[in-house]
Amino acid sequence: MANKNSVKDVVKESYKYGFVTDIETEKISKGLNEDIIRLISTKKGEPEYLLNFRLNAFKKWQQMKEPNWAELGYEEINYQDIIYYSAPKQKEKISSLDEVDPKLLETFDKLGIPLTEQKKLTNVAVDAVFDSVSIATTFREELAEHGVIFCSISEAVKNHSDLIEKYLGSVVPANDNYFAALNSAVFSDGSFVYIPKGVTCPMDLSSYFRINSGDSGQFERTLIIAEESSSVSYLEGCTAPMFDTNTLHAAVVELIALDDASIKYSTVQNWYAGNEEGLGGIFNFVTKRGKCLGNRSKISWSQVETGSAITWKYPSCLLLGEESIGEFYSVALTNNLQQADTGTKMIHIGPKTKSTIVSKGISAGNSKNSYRGLVKMGTKAIGAKNYSQCDSMLIGDQASANTLPYITSQQKNSEIEHEASTCRISEDQLFYLQSRGIEFEEAVSMMVSGFCRDVFNQLPMEFAAEADKLLALKLEGSVG
Amino acid sequence: MQIKMTKSNPILEVNNIFASTDDMPILKGVSITVFPGEIHAIMGRNGCGKSTLSKIIAGHPSYNINEGEINFLGKNVNSLAPEERAQSGIFLGFQYPIEIPGVSNLEFLRVSTNARRKFLKKEELDTFDFEDLVKEKLELVKMDSAFLSRSVNQGFSGGEKKRNEILQMALLEPKIAILDETDSGLDIDALRIVASGIKKIANNKTGIILITHYQRLLDEIEPDYVHVMSDGQIIKTGGSDLALELEKNGYEWTDNFVKEK
What we know:
The structure holds two protein chains of two kinds. Chain A is an alpha/beta fold. Chain A has eleven helices and 23 strands. Chain A has one domain (16-430). In chain A, the strands form three sheets. In chain A, strands 5, 6, 8, 10, 11, 13, 15, 16, 18, 20 and 22 form an eleven-stranded mixed beta sheet that branches. Chain A has a ten-stranded mixed beta sheet with strand order 4-3-7-9-12-14-17-19-21-23, covered by helices on one side. Chain A has a two-stranded antiparallel sheet with strand order 1-2. Chain A is globular, with a radius of gyration of 22 Å. Chain B is globular. The model of chain B has no long low-confidence stretch (mean pLDDT 91). The chains are: A alpha/beta, B alpha/beta.
């Protein structure tokens, strides 16, 4: 009757990043074997230690099995049907942005990430990654004045090989898990950040990952090193075109924080999620881990996961240094037939280490949203503390939510606190807001952002506004 | 019985409404007409259909109107969404105001006030201008501005929730306000504050319907008309003295009216 809307209509999603850039690309043939790995390494002109790192990872990967413990169901991935290297064709060496194909610049412009000198974002340095390669990094000179290195990982291999050799794979070993091993064998590009001792990075750094081609996987690799008493805030965004087929994305991110250093890593993940029937979308299998190596170091993950057909992702902290701090703030929204199995691992090794977990899962449509988290107190974690809060919100009556906490403690003198809740947006709440003149869609999105408030407060300001808008957009649909 | 001379058009006309929820009939032919400046009271036992009537006027989706019509300012609103009714000036004060975790009261009040202002073609208010307005209205219900930064109704006491409802009424400046048991759960001081707030907001252009069980609210706000409801119908209408008689004789007394009917 009077209320023509239903929650179902409102959660219909629209995706405005689904376009494809028509650009000539250089692709290698499909499939995965040693020759392909050698080819990737040669194309990137890599030193031998890196080729060995890849080959070693590939051997391990061949002996491993794809994990099946997650609350996810999907058709088997044919790893021989994927292209492992795809790059837009452009001049060998690009010295300035003027030489970047205008089509690429236009693509990032359309995504809201202008790169050119006149238009670039004023307070954020951006590394733009298109399929397998980084095409541009802004503000490099300004950052260099502070000793900050911000470039693509391929470039870091060439110019900062000592740091790569020392730290690559030191947080996520090549054989850590199936997808990390695959990434270690074939990773193409990604970002590299180095903050020297005592430096507070003068601006936020950000990487924007764009998958363009439908048949290539994206395997980016990010490495961030914060030396003693330094700090950095890093943002990551991702989108992809709409294809009917699934595209594999298996990334590895490694963070290292030394004494008194702090790294804040924020993600807004909006890969294409597939259509309403669940056709297409990105398979997002990501390993993200930070090592609080030094005393009083701090690593904080915040993520807003709204895209991908499948999300398998557990940004984690290894808390080694005394009094080091790990944080995980997450919003995961699933709709239609999306599936997410995401959470974190807080491994307390050092004494007086602290961790905080705040996870907000929102499931709409027929989607499945699971929080999976591990809190572990090691034998030396005297006086360590953890606080976890996992809340789920269900929209409609077809969606499901799970909370799967794993807690182990080998240290009596440590505290673990876990709270969990599940709620549903009730008709009464909606009616209350509507009876105050607030439109149905706005009422839903107000309640959803209210639910996510604790996490949004942790995001850098411009990201928080974007995340709020993104959730509203995801929940937007045909009304009436 | 007191008769007011009114030349203007009615604000609200409820014409012979039959309504049900889950196929269970609740309202069985209710009519009520409210002219500008009038205060009506609807009384009756629990379950007689008082609250349903208020929800139906506000457009609650769980009820179906099977027959009859609701006209607001001369226009049939049967098929309007609740937000459209609210924007055009229908206000329902909830018996049990709903908690909305995470949504700040200030933001909620601002969005809702702006929705009404937009309808009235008035300029929408930014956060700063709105804060000035809301602080002025807080005075009416003697609320502390600390309420603004809390989540909507969350952790509010019964009295605070009701005051928050009247605050919303003050901000939205409705043409008609239906206040569903606004007096329940209030101590005598809170009742006086709420009643004085309502009186200050009411004027000769607005209509008010008070739904209540008790005389005590009507001691504070004298109604022009009192309607007694029973089993989904209005069985008797009178002046403010009718409420006093009810108070004296109890609802059993009204059972005779049903028989008369």
